[in-house]
Amino acid sequence: MARKRLSDMVRQEAEKSSTAEVEIVPDESVIGVQSSASSAHESVDSAKLDLEDKIIELKMALETAQNQERSLQEKLLQLQAELEDKNQFIDRMKTEIQEADLKGKFKQAQEAALQLSEANSKLIEELKTLKQENESLKAALQPPAQPLAQPPQSKPLEKAKSQLIRRPYSSPSQPVSGEDFSNSTWLL
Fold it and tell me: Where is the composition biased (Polar residues) (predicted)?
């Protein structure tokens, strides 16, 4: 916005100076009054000097504005770079916090597992001692057991075994006769 205003002002001043010259030229061409021509010429010179001063002043203001614009753009770029760095730093910190949180939870889980393991070991030992006590109490409560007698061997089985007819071994090359056939077969 400042550039347009300055450039517009420079144009306007330049147009004024050219229009002033155009108006002055016909005044000089008039033959009648030389004093008015010299006063007009002096006013043109003073107007030119004023315009030149104004132009110099505007050029300096323009340069200053351009320098400020450059410095602001550089500052903007620096701030954007800093913002990006800070955002990356924040992301890294979030990641580290999450990792630290996970490590803490993992450590707590390990400690809990260790405590449960120790408690489980104690319970197993207690269970073993209780089982031993239970067995000793059962043994104390039961009357002494009589020696176990050998079971009587069943004689019917022995008879059954002796009544079985064994099948004689026969080879396929030997013919089986009628008498041998009945002895060599089983009857159900």
Answer: 170-188
